[in-house]
Amino acid sequence: MRDTLTQLSYVLAAVLFILGLRSLTRPDKARQGMQLAAVGMLFAICGTLIHHEIVDYRWIAGGLVLGAIIGYPLGMWVPTTALPQRIAMSLSFGALASVLVGVSEYYNALHGVGETIGMARMAALGFEVLLGSLTVTGALIAFGKLQEILPGRPLTFPGQNIANGLLFLIAFALLVLVIIDPTRSTAFYSMIALATLLGVLMVIPIGGADMPVVVALLNSYCGLAAAATGFALGNSILIISGSLDGASGFLLSILMSKAMNRSFSNVLFGAFGGGAPAAAVGAGGALPVRAISAEDAAIQLAYASRVIIVPGYGMAVAQAQHQVRELAELIEKRGGEVKYAIHPVAGRMPGHMNVLLAEANVPYDRLYDMEEINGEFPQTDVALVIGANDVVNPAAREDKSSPIYGMPILDVDKAKTVIVLKRGMAAGFAGIENMLFHAPATSMLFGDAKASLSKLVSEVKAA
Amino acid sequence: MLFLELYIFVLAGFVGYMVITRVPPLLHTPLMSATNAISGISLVGSLVAAGSHRSSVATILGFVAVVCATTNIVGGFLITDRMLKMFRRDDPKAKSSAEPK
């Protein structure tokens, strides 16, 4: 009877999870749908608490309370600009939970207090622990890079890929060894150690702007580890949720790689911008750059009838999204039309810019994807680029020798005039000279994005 | 039994792929935090490990796992809700220049 109730709660949870994810296809229904998914989670937890194997609730209660105490601030107090690192950290937590469950199952079986391990179950446990440990440290490194505890640039050493490949092969060989003979606990624990090391080594060489792909991929690993837990425990809700999670992460990482016109393997093993970016940058000094004062830029904006704002990571760093909205509202009040052009990999995680602008109260029907808005740049009076660089670099379209050639970009250079807000003339993440900044229609407004925008706001008010 | 589980895994993967393909880029960040919260379902495994009293090692490991998974569930659903609350359409009364879309 109790088991039936448990299973029923899982079925209900599975249905509500899928409906919740489905609701994310509609921004107006999404909130309600996700609240239903949370209810589903509650059912699954209650259904598990009556499980016949659970005999002692003290540790459980302590864990639930402690988790809720840690989880609440992580949910309510983390600022939206810190979302990428927040997500990386929770991926690490999730994977750690899978690993620990796997290890405790293995330990119990080894000491004869749990179910004995057949080959299939051992394979599931092994995969779970291997993928999980790799994700734990990989996500921690991603967190460190995003939080800027670790340097964001790629850290590389010669023979890195070969070393990583070898490590992976050894870890995999250990996995096979344990599957054949589950009593080889040394192999099992060495595999965990190797996978943990591998997670560090795999993410260390990946640069800051490639983080959207990495975070999505780690999301996928985390899901697969959860699914493997489900196989090991014979628990269908774990398999279903893990599979959903895995599919979502996988799909997002494909979308992100596509938006950068790079293959998966290129992102993971290419260490973009770390190798030899110097060749393209050298010529930069001689090219003309037209700086503009905030007053002049404000006059252009005040009298423009069509404006497109292109936000990039620089806006997130300066936390300038509120000033952006203020400026946009002023232009609209004066009769101009303002749209926002969002490149899929702008920022440090999928959808990063959208959340920041939504936080600043920009209505989401003003946010346009790259394909939707690219045709409108030629009719645009002013394109205002705020801390974006590589995603508006025309070299991606024109210069076959450029490392980013072929990457889909926002056609900002086709606008009648372009104003670029930028801290200095430093090259973007990819280390490539951006000809947009030297184009005759472009003027550069140097300075911190937030300060520049505040100046623009007061000047437009006065105009 | 193993094959039944494989069926579940593959079919759920397909459902996930179909559903998630239709999520607009606008909501990709909430999608990530939502799947993150949902993957906190590994709590059900952690609960059994922490409460079945088989060995003290398993209990301790299970306890830590319960903390991690609960953190993800509570934090994940809260932050997803907080984000989704921020997404709003243009208020039709406030502005006439807004184009229908």
Q: How many DSSP helices of chain A? A: 18
Largest sheet of chain B: none
End-to-end gap of chain A? 75 Å
Q: Please give the domain count of chain A.
A: 3
For the largest beta-sheet of chain A, the strand count, sense and barrel status come to: 6 strands, parallel
**Percent helix among the residues of chain B?**
over 70%
Provide the residue-averaged pLDDT of chain A.
88
What is the ordering of alpha helices and beta strands of chain B? HHHH
Gyration radius of chain A (Cα, Å) is 25 Å
Short description:
The complex is a heterodimer of chains A (463) and B (101). Chain A is an alpha/beta fold and 463 residues long.
Describe the structure.
The complex is a heterodimer of chains A (463) and B (101). In chain A, helix 1 (2-23) packs parallel to helix 9, helix 5 runs antiparallel to helix 8 (211-233) and helix 8 (211-233) runs antiparallel to helix 9 (236-259). Chain A has 463 residues and is of the alpha/beta class. Chain A folds into 3 domains: 1-77; 83-270, no CATH class; 283-462, Rossmann fold, CATH 3.40.50. Chain A has helices spanning 2-23, 30-49, 58-76, 83-110, 119-146, 160-180, 185-203, 211-233, 236-259, 264-270, 278-281, 294-302, 313-318, 321-333, 352-359, 370-373, 395-398, 449-462; strands at 306-311, 337-342, 367-369, 382-386, 417-422, 442-446. Chain A contains 18 helices and 6 strands. The radius of gyration of chain A is 25 Å and the shape is elongated. The longest helix of chain A has 28 residues, at 83-110. Helix content of chain A is 59%, strand content 7%. Helices cover 71% and strands 0% of the residues of chain B. Chain B is built from 4 helices and no strands. Chain B starts with a helix and ends in a 15-residue tail after the last helix. The chains are: A alpha/beta (463), B mainly alpha (101). At the A-B interface, helix 1, helix 2, helix 3, helix 4 and helix 8 of A face helix 1, helix 2, helix 3 and helix 4 of B.
